[in-house]
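During the no-cost extension, the postdoctoral fellow (Dr. R.K.) reprocessed legacy sequence entries with the updated structure-token encoder. One reprocessed record is reproduced below for audit purposes.
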Amino acid sequence: MKILVIGSSGSIGTHFINFLCSKKKIKQIFAIDKKTNKINSKKIFFKKFDLENFKSNIYFGKRIDCAIMLGAFLNFKDIDPLEFYYKNMLIFYNSIKVCKQNNIKKIIYLSSFAVYGDLNSSSINENFKLNGNNIYSQLKIFQEQELKKLSYIGNFKFNVLRLSQIYGSNITTNIIYRFIEMKKINKTVEINGDGSQKRDFLFIDDLINAIYLTMIKFKANEVFNVCSGIGITLKKVVDLIGVKYFLNKKKLREPKIVIGNNIKIKKTLNWKVKFDLEKGINKIN
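Re-encoded structure tokens follow.
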């Protein structure tokens, strides 16, 4: 197989390309990012390209079997919401344009559990109503909808992967990374409430395997939750990491329980979670 990875130099992209390089089924990896890809492999053909500023065509001249859309502008806290939305939609549409230019008929798009909003549930499945309650979740919902519309216009098939909280080495957007960094400098973590709120954490290696299986066993126009299906309390997280913490006992302004249902991806793609939280933390802590 020949694969295109859009957003290849980010944290997930780097993990994924390293994984692909070890797979005999993968003959060539085409990679796009505005940051230089530092992975050294004869399989990789890298093009440095800023998808926010699309000034020329990107044509690889090879038949590419599948594209993985990882490119995104993630920092929405320190930027005007309209600019955040605009930048991400540019990246999204230009990613689709690159796929069209290279006649790619299969696209895998990484979405987020954020599309479900502030649900308080122990088994969130793919049929739950979408509810964007902030700029990021609204963006992801709109991009999922656009992908579906554009697939009809552009004559391609897609899969959407909705990710729970992903953690692992160099995954800086997760609270586990922040807690480990605070432990390194002997800083105390503040936890809202009594620490019994439960979240669904998934180790990066399990995510990478899920993306790979989605690519290999591609099922047209399906949406999959990619999550552990297990709720872990924040108190359990800090205890496993070994970081100092205190409970502020404030009234929670967040859902008590957010746990995904992963039955669909397990049954459809025979995907399995190999890392429980303790095993994952021990690998990176």
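The helical segments are 11-21, 81-101, 135-154, 175-184, 204-216, 234-241, 263-269, 277-284. DSSP finds eight helices and 15 strands in the chain. The remaining legacy entries will be reprocessed before the final report is submitted.
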